[in-house]
Write a structure and sequence with these properties.
two-stranded antiparallel ribbon, 38% helix, TIM Barrel, alpha/beta
Length: 292
């Protein structure tokens, strides 16, 4: 065998750049979000045990220097508990040096698991769930076809935290367009506060050409925000976000103003930085440097 069995485009969170990537699902079980074109070419399937086992064996033999492993594609938490337990158990047996396994989780996958099941996964090495909250605003969630209300999203996030897992929640600036920009920011900050994740990762909306959102932009029915309006939205979101501890990031490649805010201690200083950027005292990242 000359490598891992990867199919299609592979994505992972920026913080998993040095992790072993183990593909256990193809695509995303929801795959309807208007802004996401990542898994359009893939029909959602859970990969066969034999292929997953072969990849674990290959990683155990050839990737001994990496201490973290990330399960891809879109939402590996949707995998039935028994099979997920089997995968994590095999990782632990074959690669005892792995300190943490990470996974993308959507609300549907999280809410299908009991707190006991999530705790069982934690006991087998699962350490962090990356959760796409995107927005805390009901109308925005409906318009992007996320498939859940803010209440259900908050419930899912709280459930991960209650099981003792680390949670990295993602939110997207510009997702509500110009009309509801500040409502989206405020409601998202309030939802993040209710969840109280360990990490918040804020991305800036882009419109990849193969998405429904790009069609809306071309038709003029959705207006992307200017850099200044994005900053105002970021300020509003951060202002309304309360975390007992943890990090609030806007350092993704898509962002105009990279921030790394230790919460709650550095929140005020970060808001001052945004105000200075709005006043023109801090230069924003130029357009050509932004990307996915």
């Amino acid at each position: 065998m000359d490598g891992m069995h990867y199919e299609g485009m592979i994505i992972r969170p920026p913080s998993e750049a040095d992790s072993i990537l183990l593909q256990v699902t193809l695509g995303c079980s929801h795959n309807k979000c208007t802004f996401c074109g990542t898994y359009k070419e893939k029909r959602f399937t859970i990969k066969d045990d034999s292929i997953i086992d072969a990849d674990i064996d290959y990683a155990a033999e050839n990737l001994r220097f990496q201490r973290r492993l990330f399960l891809i594609d879109g939402d590996a938490l949707i995998i039935p508990q028994q099979k997920l337990v089997r995968i994590l158990t095999r990782i632990r047996e074959k690669m005892p040096w792995i300190l943490r396994v990470g996974v993308y989780g959507n609300a549907k996958g999280i809410l299908r698991k009991s707190e006991e099941e999530l705790a069982e996964l934690r006991s087998l090495g699962l350490g962090i769930v990356y959760f796409g909250l995107e927005s805390g605003d009901a109308r925005t969630l409906s318009e992007i076809k996320k498939g859940h209300t803010p209440e259900r999203m908050i419930e899912a996030g709280q459930k991960v935290r209650a099981a003792g897992l680390k949670l990295s929640a993602m939110a997207i600036l510009g997702l509500a367009g110009r009309e509801r920009s500040l409502e989206h920011a405020r409601a998202t900050g309030e939802a993040l506060s209710a969840i109280d994740p360990n990490y918040v990762g804020v991305l800036t909306l882009m419109a990849p050409p193969n998405t429904e959102l790009a069609m809306q932009v071309r038709a003029g029915t959705f207006k992307l925000l200017s850099p200044e309006l994005m900053l105002r939205e970021l300020r509003e979101m951060l202002f309304h976000t309360t975390m007992t501890r943890g990090l609030f990031f806007s350092n993704h490649a898509s962002n105009y103003l990279p921030l790394r805010v230790r919460m709650p201690a550095e929140k005020e200083k970060a808001i001052e930085s945004i105000d200075r950027a709005l006043a023109g005292a801090i230069a924003l990242k130029p357009e050509w440097m932004r990307g996915l």
